[in-house]
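Hello again, I could really use a second opinion on something today. I've been staring at a protein lately and its backbone has me curious. Can you walk me through what the tokens say about the fold? Take your time with it, there's no hurry, and the full record follows here:
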Amino acid sequence: MLGCIRFRVKYPVPKPWEVPLVFQIRALRVDDYDRLIDLWKAAGLEHKPRGRDRRICIEQEMAGPSSVFLVAEEKGEMIGAVLGTHDGRKGWINRLAVAPAHRRRGVGQALVDAAEERLVAIGIRIVTCLIEDWNTESMAFFEGIGYVEHRECVYYSKRMEPDV
């Protein structure tokens, strides 16, 4: 059998989600803004570029005492982000995004855990999140990490401008 090489794979080749990820979690920086927006788009999250998601709005929140904005990076690539805040009594997971290629590998849970740790360290004992009714994947994720749905609460908002 000239020109033919036969070999057997002794161990099954792992599927991408079976290969452990090595990533770091760090605070979001102002210079991460463009990559953050790209991540949100890749993750299918809404982006309000003329409202609350403007660069200046994110920068102002980051500079304040109530933000817990974190990113997960693998080899310099932003693979996830969480925007957490608090009002002194209650913490909020406002936006969680994980790049589609890195989902179901612990990135989302690691980001939420890191945000919760920082909130608990400053005395916050309740952490909540709001999830739009179409986003069943996020609902299942948060239920899976111990969050409980509260149907007795109804969310109201008053938007001073339509784009915020």
In short: The beta strands are 24-27, 67-74, 77-86, 91-98, 127-129. The mean pLDDT is 88.
